Recover the amino acids of this structure.
């Protein structure tokens, strides 16, 4: 299920130093490359970040950028941007090194997907492995196998 | 017991939080119904949850709710979730 959610172009490095909003934009752009969202979705994600603050920085160094289902979403998907230089979001979990992006077509079809994702991320040692692993193929295997 | 896992949209962070809270509560042997909801729904809900799990950034916005509010710093840390739920339920 996670293997389907992460499209072919969905896991990438970001080499340029950027700010928090730039990091969100680049992560959401990966969803757009894989035709999971249209350009409208980024505006939704940035708006929610402006309105509610960086609440989607959910663990030390790890963010999951997302907006509500619907607007700008073509297909449920996930992406991961690994920042070469971490950025500051304003969350207690700063600095952010991994920016996941997530989009859902409706409010219930992705529940199992996120449950699998939570399981992978919560497994002992996996978070540190992801934070410190530079090889994207290894990262993809860890997330999707 | 009813528990709300809360996030801004009610579909991403809250679902992850619900998923881990379900696992922790099951391991603790606590019977609970955990619902993932948006912050707006948590505030306006007719039936009050005993416990609200939330990310710290949103805590300020839910102030005044009569549930016991538990901020979770790391939603992937099952130990943190278990410790805080154990403390809340004891």
């Amino acid at each position: 299920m996670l293997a389907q959610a992460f499209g072919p172009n969905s896991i990438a490095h970001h080499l340029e130093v950027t700010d928090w909003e730039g990091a969100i934009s680049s992560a959401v752009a990966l969803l757009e490359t894989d035709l999971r969202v249209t350009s409208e979705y980024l505006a939704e994600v940035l708006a929610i970040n402006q309105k509610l603050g960086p609440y989607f920085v959910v663990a030390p160094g790890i963010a999951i950028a997302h907006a509500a289902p619907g607007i700008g979403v073509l297909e449920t998907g996930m992406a991961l941007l690994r920042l070469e230089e971490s950025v500051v979001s304003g969350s207690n979990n700063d600095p952010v090194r991994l920016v996941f992006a997530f989009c859902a077509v409706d409010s219930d079809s992705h529940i199992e997907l996120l449950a699998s994702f939570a399981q992978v991320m919560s497994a002992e040692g996996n978070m540190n492995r992801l934070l410190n692993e530079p090889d994207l193929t290894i990262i993809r295997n860890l997330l999707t196998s | 017991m009813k528990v709300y896992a809360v996030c801004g949209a009610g579909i991403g962070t809250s679902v992850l939080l619900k998923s881990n809270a379900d696992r922790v509560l099951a391991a603790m042997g606590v019977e609970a119904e955990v619902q993932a909801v948006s912050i707006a729904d948590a505030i306006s809900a007719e039936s009050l949850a005993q416990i609200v799990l939330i990310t710290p950034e949103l805590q300020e916005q839910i102030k005044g709710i009569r549930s016991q509010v538990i901020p979770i710093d790391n939603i992937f840390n099952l130990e943190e979730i278990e410790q805080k739920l154990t403390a809340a339920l004891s």
